[in-house]
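Re: the pair you flagged

First of the two:
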Amino acid sequence: MQPLVSVIMPAYNGEKYIGEAIESILNQTHENLELIIVEDHSTDRTPEVIRRYQDPRLRVYFNGRNEGISYSTNRGIDESRGKYIALLDDDDIATRRRLEWQTAFLEEHGEIDVLGARSALIDRDGKFLRYDAEPIYNPKYIKANLLFYNKKFANCTVMIRKAFMEKNHLRYQDHCLGMQDFKFYIDSSKVGTISSIDRLVHLKRIHEEEATVLSKKFHGKERADLFAQFQRESIYKSGFCIGEEHLQAINDVVTEIPKDRYSIEDVKRLYLAFREIVLQARQMEIDYLSELEYACKRILGERVLPRADLFGRDITCFGQVDL
């Protein structure tokens, strides 16, 4: 029987946790699925753990050498047969009704191309830590935020229409230093509609060997530069044409990880950059203007101003003058 959902799981040195990840998919309430694992030439016992599972819905592909997570994800997608693509890391867990909830929503909402959901954080032993930030449900607000950063959208909560990926030639790109998901959602937001559901579908494991943690630790400067490059590409691809001074202000202030402190000059520069973007958005009559205005104000008001050195400064202009 043709599976409705293909779950793609890149695997690399995941012997500690991959068993739980596999079982969380094979035990889904929605059974019309296939689980495709792409084993990326691990140096530990990951292949041995995978071979313990004998289920006709499980298919495993072995890379001849270590190729990286983007290559492995794309290979899994290429081998998939499902109408929908779901993603799960080899150290995370899908809640039992994840595929049931997301397929039901996408079957009823043909206008949605990429669907996220809620996530919670667990420690290395699987103990609950906290709920992740509530996702954004408004597609236009997601699109507005993806001009600048990936706000409240966890990659392994995602289910994607495969036909949407094929039609728009969407791929996970290599050499992204762990930010291939950010780049994928930027590209998707230009040609499709992204939303989320208010369901807990994903348990993200936090530990020292996590790929994102290692990337930030060993490639901090390169990752920051690449994040800035993605921002610029996102802004340009959406039709905005702003000067280098404004682009640099956005790069300097709207970083992947918020800075501890911002100067009054940082606030002014970002305010002027956002004002120019909103002005151009009005001239272009974009369909997400109100969401873009709100996103800019939220970034200024919640992300930057609380960390700004504003003692004795008059900041009324930032709160009272429309962007």
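Second of the two:
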Amino acid sequence: MILSGQEIRSQLGKNIVIDPFDEARLNPNSYNLTLHDELMVYEEVVLDMRKANRTRRIKIPPEGLVLSPNQLYLGRTVERTETRNLVPMIEGRSSIGRLGLFVHVTAGFGDVGFCGYWTLEMFAIQPVRVYPGVAICQIFYHDIRGPFTAYSSNKYQNNTDIQPSLLFKELNPEGEADPQRRLPFGMD
């Protein structure tokens, strides 16, 4: 079951934290999160799952920044969220999708217990200008049934910034960014 906007409001400070919270961004069954003023792009031509790929930052000026097709942009929400006893999810807003901008490539599903900023995997179908502070996506909440273990991660939990992929921490038992060994079972 998805929580209504009124239920989201009633859970603030209990099972839901949205900081900062603006009543005007509360919807009938979601809350609009806004785009921070900085993006991150990968500098590598070929991204390697086993490495910490190089990135660079791009500031979004007040007059906006044009996103180019065929480029992945990582952004983050202005709002920091915490969720207890509920499953948070984000989706792009329909007004954003109608401009051909995907807000999350595959990572819209959150985990019960997540605390931090949402990293957005943004991809434009055609050039589109984005602005800092624009309501870019919406967060909504599902009830969870049955016993569960709250999310805890040494990768993304309690983040304070845009998070590039940290998959290499899973693929390398010691969490090395640039291992010299091969993956097991000839999977390289």
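The two ends are 42 Å apart (CA to CA).

-B.
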